[in-house]
Amino acid sequence: MNGGGALPGDLERGVIAAGEEPVVEVAPRRPPLTPNEWIRRNLFSSWFNGVLTIVSGALVLFIGFRLLRFVFVSADWTVLKANLRVYMVGRFPQEDIWRVWAVAFFLAMLVGVSRGVLLPPSRTRRGAYVRAVVAVVAVGALVYLVESLLVWLLLAIAAALFAGGVAAGRRLGRRLVRPILIAWLLAFPVVVVLLSFGDVGADRWGGMLLNVIVAVAVIALSFPIGILLGLGRRSSLPAVSWFCVGFIELIRGVPLLTLLIFGRFVLILLLPPGLTFAQLVRAILMFTLFSSAYVAEILRGGLQGVPEGQYEAARALGLSTTRTMALVALPQALRSTIPPMIGHFISVFKDTSLLAALSFSDLLFTARRASQSFEFVGHQAEALLPAAFLFWVIAFSISRWSQRVETRLGVGER
Q1: Concatenated DSSP letters for 194-212?
Q2: Read out DSSP for 219-253?
Q3: Which phi and psi (to 5°) does residue 362 adopt?
Q4: From start to end of 22-90, where are the E strands?
């Protein structure tokens, strides 16, 4: 019993109310590690970790030295300089190349505005160093590869449009969110029409241009189809559920190359007389079917991760099954599946290299063809490495963008 005296809590509140600071306001923070302490704790914490660090470091240095020596000393990049345009656009007509530049200007402006609105500027010193190094490397490579003053002028215009878009996006802010979404929805049809109107058909597309267009088309088509398949697999209607399960398991059990060969040689025989599709359209269709099956399975995993209490709360509020799925379960499932979904889309982009097996003039096909030219015999590495590097740059950029989106949405944190 306290005998009517003040309680400990009352005493503490009285001290704070009187203006005195509490003894400890927050938990003390651990001081940052010095470089020597970080190396000792993370690289040489035990004899095994020390040996592993030394062996791994020696291997990395050896591989890095050999790679840098090949790139800057041994390699002859004449094959890349002679075929740079073919790497980018394939057999696209020279007199219509202005269409590609118009698309590049449009996308540079759109990407810049989107970045300015949706992604905050990086203020870390590390980010500034990375951007500076990337800019120096990119400019150095362009100085070596590009000799045309006209191309330099067009690249400068594209860079200026991107920078202007970023500035405009940061200035106008959230007011541009809806126009940006509409612009991205219309971007693909606009690009396709701009590249193909007149006498320039899809059969003239090639190089990296073809890989990017096919990947974007497949991702845009397979994402909604995969969502419908994933929801249909969980349907209470047996006919819908069985159809979705059968489709998903059938497509997932067949190699992608087999589907592409089927689309090229067999699908045309199954169509009604007089009905035909271009070869590229059939390839995109097979890619879409394959990708949508995997999107459905990724979504199914996300839906299984939604707590049952969310469904019970939605039913308690009187929401119908459709509203519960659209407003409660599906947003949570899509948010939690961002990492595997983006990983799958990166795989889709890399799988477009299989177009070379069907004699499409994509980036890999043009790289192989360049290495087989008489004047470049023996330079297969110089011809194929740039193609691999371009694939890696785009895949890595998508991955970094995905990580920033995950950070903003708090994926894995709450």
Answers
A1: HHHSTT--GGG--HHHHHH
A2: HHHHHHHHHHHHHHHT-SSHHHHHHHHHHHHHHHT
A3: -85, -170
A4: none
Asked if residues 324 and 315 have their Cβ atoms less than 8 Å apart, the reply is: yes
> Helix 207-233 vs helix 177-196: angle between axes, to the nearest 10 degrees?
130
Closest CA to 145 of 86, 100, 70, 66: 86
The pLDDT of residue 1 is 44
Cα–Cα distances (Å) from 110 to 45, 155, 320, in that order, read 49, 16, 38
Rg (CA), the chain: 28
| Domains detected in the chain | 94-199 (no CATH), 200-414 (1.10.3720.10)
| The predicted structure's pLDDT at residue 58 | 95
- 243-249 long-range contacts (CB < 8 A, ≥24 apart) are 244/296, 247/293, 248/293, 248/296, 248/297
CA distance 72 to 65: 11
Contact 348, 218 (CB under 8 A): yes
pLDDT for res 350: 92
The DSSP symbol for 355 reads: G
State how far the alpha carbon of 326 is from the alpha carbons of 320, 330, 349, 410, in Å.
Answer: 10, 5, 28, 21
pLDDT of residue 201: 74
- DSSP lists the bridge partners of residue 207 as 362
Cα(380)–Cα(187) distance, rounded to whole angstroms?
A: 36
pLDDT score for 3: 47
Q: What are phi and psi of 258, to 5 degrees?
A: -65, -40
**Which pTM value belongs to this model?**
0.83
- Cα pseudo-dihedral 30, 36, 38, 41, rounded to 10: -100
Contact between residue 203 and residue 92 where contact means Cβ atoms under 8 Å apart: no
Distance in angstroms (rounded) separating the CA atoms of residues 369 and 380: 10
Which portions of the chain are predicted below pLDDT 50? 1-18
The answer to whether the beta carbons of residues 354 and 263 sit under 8 Å apart is: no
Q: Which amino acid is at 7?
A: L
